[in-house]
Every structure is written in C-alpha cells, then in structure tokens.
Amino acid sequence: MRDLTIAAARTALRSGALSARELTDAHLDAIAALNPRLNAFITVTPELARAQADAADAALRRGAHGALTGIPLGIKDLFCTAGVRTTAASRILGPFVPPYESTVTARLRDAGAVFLGKTNLDEFAMGSSNMTSAFGPVTNPWTRRGDNAPLVPGGSSGGSAAAVAARLALGATGTDTGGSIRQPASFCGIAGLKPTYGRCSRWGIVAFASSLDQAGPFARTVEDCAILLGAMAGHDDRDSTSADIPVPDFAAACTRGVRGLRIGIPREYRSDGMAPEIGALWQQGIAWLRDAGAEVIDISLPHTKYALATYYIVAPAEASSNLARYDGVRFGLRAEGEDLTGLYENTRAAGFGAEVRRRIMIGTYVLSAGYYDAYYLRAQKVRALILSDFTEAFRECDALLTPTAPSAAFAQGEKMDDPVTMYLNDVFTVPANMAGIPGLSVPAGLDAQGLPLGLQILGRPFDEETVFAVGTAIEHAAGFTAAPAAG
Predict the structure, then answer these.
(1) What pLDDT, in 10s, does the model give residues 101-124?
(2) Phi, psi values for residue 427, rounded to 5°
(3) Which tens digit of pLDDT belongs to each residue from 123-152?
(4) For the chain, what is the largest distance between any 2 Cα atoms, rounded to a whole number of angstroms?
(5) If you placed Cys at 67, which of 28, 85, 111, 217 could pair as Cys (CB 3.0 to 4.6 Å)?
(6) Count of C-beta atoms within a 10 Å radius of residue 440
(7) For residues 113 and 224, what is the distance between their CA atoms, to the nearest angstrom?
C-alpha cells in the first residue's frame, strides 16, 4: 500500500478498501525500519499520526472526508507545528516547540491529512545537499549501479524528497528559496513544485529569505502534487505577500494536454559544462512535447546568466536580517555570557552551523554602509531585469522547458570543500525564484549510473495549471517507473 499514489489512496480510503490507520501504520513501520539509515525525519510523531488516522477513519465512515483525509504526509521541519518540536535543522532551535500552527500545515490538517513527523533539511534551508543539518545528513535512497557510496538527496528539502522517494510518506511539504524543492525532487526521482510567490502563505514558516521563500509539495506524480497544492494554497491575511486570488482545480488541469501550447526553450540554459546526458534528456523532452501537439520555439532570457550571482547577494542579505532574531533571549538555545553582547555572541556561535554563519556574514557585508549601493541595490536592479526577461518570453510562449539540475545526485563528501561549487547546483532553478514564477520538476530518465534526472517546467505567474498540464505530458511520455532500492 506504500506504493499507492495519493490519488489512488484517496479512492481506496473512500471506498473502504483501505483504512487510514492501516495506511498510517504501514508508513510508520517503514520509517522505523529505514529512517535510522536515511535520516529523512528529525522528529517522528506516531501518537499524533495514529490519532489523526483514527479521526480520518471516523470521518470517512460518516462520508465527511476532505481532500486529503487519511493521507500520510511528511512535514519539512521549517513549518511550525503546534505542540511538535520545530528545529529548522539548527541547534539554535533544538528545544523550540511552537504554540501555533503554520497556515500551510493548518490547511493540510483541515483537509484531513495525517502528519507522520518533521523531515530533515539543510540548516535554515541553506544548502543544496542536506549536509548542513545539525541533526546529521540525509541519505538519498538511490545508489549508483555497483556502488553503495551514500548519495545526497539534494537540498534544502532533502528529507522530504528522500521520504517520498523511499515510500516513507505519500507526499511531503517543502520550501523553495532557490531550488530547494525542484533540485531534491530531481535527485530523488519524484515530482516537486515551487508555486508562484504568494500562492501559499509563508505565515508560520521559519524564514530564510522572505522575498524568495515559497512553500510547495513533493509527491511521486504530477497529479499528486496538484492535489496537495490545492489544499496548501490560498489567501492568508496574516501574510502580507499572500495573493488574494482564487485557488483553481489544479488536479483537473493535469488532464488538459498540451496540444496548441507554445513551449519556449531558453538558449541561455545550454551551458558548455552541461553533462551530455542532461542535454540529451532535454532534447528528448522537447521531442515528447512536439509529439504531444505542442509547438516548440527558441526564446532568450539574457539576464538569467546573472541570476545565481544576484541570488547570492539578495538571499544572504535577507537571511542576515531574518536570523537576527535568534539571540538567546526570547526562544530557542541560550548560551550565557558575561554581558548582553556575550550572550548574543555565545548563543549564535553555539547555535549556528558553518554555512549559516557564512551566509549571515555575506549578507551583513552587502548591506553594510559603503557596500549597500554597490551590491544589494544593484542586485535588486538586476532582479527586475530577470523578471522582465521572463515577462517578455511569456508573451511568445505558454511555458518553458529546461533541465532541473546540472547533474544527478552526487556522493556525500563530494563538492563539499568548495561553497561556490555547491552554489552552482542551483543554476537552473534560481531564476524562477528571482522572478517569482512557478516551476515544476518531473522525473524523466536515468543517467548511465542508474540515477534519476529531472526536467523543469516554468510557467507564467499564477498559471500553475499550465505547468501541471505540461508536466503531466512529460510524465506520461517518460513513463518513469524506476524506484530506489531503499523503499
């Protein structure tokens, strides 16, 4: 039953062929067996999950089910959950138990979902490998052919991606600031969506970079992502960036097809250093969409070559401001000092890991007197140009097709010594965050070592429906059925 899709599990639950308690227990048993090796969950909540499953079964018997009644999910440990520890994978929040629920998780709960626990991530969502967590790295359930070296699941939402890929949950939440849903989805062979900025409320999500962060779903199919987004999305008065627009039937959009759509292929994404397998898969994706009736055109996004550099000015600047609240006074870790300054210094030195400290220092530097205009202000101007490029492109086409990541999953320990090399993992995903547009990664093939590779669909702001339609076409053409050994 752990191989069911969310759509299939809903049908089985509503027909009485399967109970929510049976489905939940199967996933909790799998977590108990596999999580010691994968480390996908920081906190497992079996009592809560079983209580929610029993409530779901009672609702199903009454015929009072919601969109996700009885569906077991993992929750990225960046979403505040009332009464359940929320750490952001950082020592500084290790003891924090919030008294309130994030809007996204409250909506999932109200839709009847079952929460299995809190999934691991890069500390404060800063990373592309899930190696910076204070609670240890997550291991990708996939391995290379003939090689058992543990691989990274991608990041920052690596725990959620690994949990879904390993069949520890039917779906999971993630957040995407520069690719933190789409890149791990590609590395783990599942689907993952970053919605339009403002589609899902950020209230109750531990902040990294407030103008970039966006919650989104992981699942094993595009349709399942659409089902989850339908429950997660919607206006929230508590989030000033939340868009007050209707939530459409995303799942219905998966059946639209792509005939008559114009798909743009951005020439700037064809980098010289791209692995031949990535380029070949991209060309295959283009052919699949043509065969499905779409028109494929070349387009230009001339300023996207500056997106990664711009991101690593804007995001650390916002992080340095957001993380100033962790001072040892109000909540979380407290390391005493001789005076107030000593309290601050000792708390942050003990609580923040190396990557978080690095980004705080970068951000503080670019915001400092004498450098604000040279770096941060200029980066914001470039960001406006990146958005303008996408706006112009979408006058010619309905969606864009690109690779998701420049490589398949790499081994734990590889690329770790050079932060810049690690940052390059986000080269294909960051532009969508800078522009605030939706992006979906769909598993589309395997590399020569048997590891999954993803294709990315980008769409107009608040046009996730077209993104889901194109993603479904890719998914059907690819026929991706491979699964990791650990699952």
Answers:
(1) 999 999 999 999 999 999 999 999
(2) -60, -35
(3) 999 989 999 999 999 999 999 998 989 999
(4) 70
(5) 111
(6) 33
(7) 13
Residue 89, C-beta contacts closer than 8 angstroms, at least 6 positions apart = 42, 77, 120, 121, 122, 123, 124, 132, 133, 134, 135
Q: Who contacts 210 (Cβ-Cβ below 8 Å, separation ≥6)? A: 202, 241, 318, 322
Query: Token match 């086409």: residue?
Result: 397
Between helix 103-110 and helix 222-232 the angle, nearest 10°, is 110
A 10 A CB-CB count for 309 gives: 13
| DSSP annotation string for 446-473 | E-TTS-EEEEEEEESTT-HHHHHHHHHH
How many Å apart are CA 177 and CA 474, to the nearest integer? 24
How far, CA to CA in Å, does 131 sit from each of 138, 158, 301, 424?
7, 9, 32, 16
| Structural domains for the chain | 1-487 (3.90.1300.10)
What global pTM score does this model have? 0.95
Which residues are known to be catalytic? Answer: 76, 156, 180
Please spell the DSSP secondary structure of 140-182, one letter per residue: PS---TT----B---SSSHHHHHHHHTTS-SEEEEEESSSTTH
Q: How far is CA 280 from CA 151, 226, 275, 283, in A?
A: 23, 28, 9, 5
